[in-house]
């Protein structure tokens, strides 16, 4: 197995400055590189404390790439609907070169109505813009004299500069939160999968994984070579009760932040997002102890977290890469540093026979 980390800020300037958050994130990424973690990933969100300190993953990942030597940098995810494909392909190609080929690119659809309104993009165009944007970026990376005549963008013939460092292009992942059909399409296209079991639940995520793996094989690829990243919040301490105290505080803050960011679903409706109107109540539905019991959150001492991971491996397989959300900004950076060290020293070795960290 392999393990990485995710930065998903849920903090605003009233609690921590952006400059301090970025400094802490880079320092934690350097530590993760030294400890042997496989990747560091961050998001694209706007306006709210829920993710708003990461409106563009590329600058922060560039700083991390230039401060490290081995760890991969990953977007989790960039949003084609909010970006022109030429600009998105070019920014990511620069990062791929600056990292000397350590970039993984996750693409997502986004889901917050206020973000779509700000970019003047209808929610009902989300899926179509996602599919067109990913195809256009992949084409710009891999071919020259690209002529694009799509529904939302038209350009060319153009040849992108710089060319990606990785050929034909960086590994591409698709973020799939609830849809087995989207996961199956990603597998059939030979793309990786980024998932969050806390969103879909155990059975829902097992269905997503089964669909993805089926699509991968149906696309003519060998089973067992899929690329799957799964994200969990992680709180680790020598004292399990202290880990849970810290985790409960951080997750309660997360609940407040997502409630604020999803409030617009009280009025918004879209065929591209069936059932998302229930997200208006998202903050009220997140219960730390229940989510911990269901292994949607990892929290405890090293022995307790090891036991949780053993169950997760049984559920989802040992061919996945686990990505731990460790630095929301609401807890001191020292808490995240201790978590990274404890996991690397006292949890990861139990899984060493299953593969590299």
UniProtKB/TrEMBL annotation:
Residues 1-317 form the Luciferase-like domain. Gene3D superfamilies: Luciferase-like domain. It comes from the Bacteria. Its EC number is 1.-.-.-. GO terms for molecular function: oxidoreductase activity. Keywords: Oxidoreductase. This is LLM class flavin-dependent oxidoreductase. It comes from Streptacidiphilus jeojiensis.
């Amino acid at each position: 197995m392999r393990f990485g980390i995710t930065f998903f800020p849920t903090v605003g300037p009233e609690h921590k400055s952006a400059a301090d958050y970025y400094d802490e994130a880079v320092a934690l990424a350097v530590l993760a590189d030294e400890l042997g973690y496989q990747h560091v990933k961050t998001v694209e969100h706007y306006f709210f404390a829920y993710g708003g300190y990461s409106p563009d993953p590329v600058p922060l990942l560039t700083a991390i790439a230039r401060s490290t030597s081995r760890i991969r940098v990953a977007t989790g995810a960039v949003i084609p609907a909010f970006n022109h494909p030429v600009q998105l392909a070019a920014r990511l190609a620069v990062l791929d070169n600056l990292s000397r080929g350590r970039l993984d690119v996750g693409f997502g659809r986004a889901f917050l109505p206020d973000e779509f309104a700000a970019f003047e993009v209808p929610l009902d165009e989300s899926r179509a813009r996602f599919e067109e944007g990913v195809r256009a970026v992949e084409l710009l990376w891999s071919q020259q004299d690209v002529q694009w005549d799509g529904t939302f963008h038209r350009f060319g013939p153009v040849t992108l500069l710089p060319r990606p460092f990785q050929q034909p292009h960086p590994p591409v992942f698709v973020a799939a939160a609830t849809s087995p059909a989207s996961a199956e399409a990603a597998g059939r296209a030979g793309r990786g999968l980024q998932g969050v079991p806390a969103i879909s639940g155990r059975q829902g995520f097992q269905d997503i994984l089964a669909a993805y793996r089926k699509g991968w094989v149906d696309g003519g690829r060998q089973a067992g070579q899929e690329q799957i990243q799964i994200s969990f919040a992680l709180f680790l301490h020598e004292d399990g009760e202290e880990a849970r105290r810290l985790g409960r505080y951080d997750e309660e803050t997360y609940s407040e932040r997502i409630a604020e960011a999803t409030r617009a679903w009280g009025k918004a409706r879209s065929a591209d997002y069936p059932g998302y109107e229930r997200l208006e109540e998202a903050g009220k539905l997140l219960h730390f102890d229940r989510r911990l019991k269901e292994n949607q959150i990892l929290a405890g001492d090293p022995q307790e977290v090891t036991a949780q991971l053993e169950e997760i491996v049984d559920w989802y397989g040992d061919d996945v890469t686990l990505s731990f959300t460790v630095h929301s900004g609401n807890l001191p950076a020292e808490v995240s540093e201790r978590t990274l060290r404890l996991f690397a020293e006292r949890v990861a070795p139990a899984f060493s026979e299953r593969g590299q960290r």
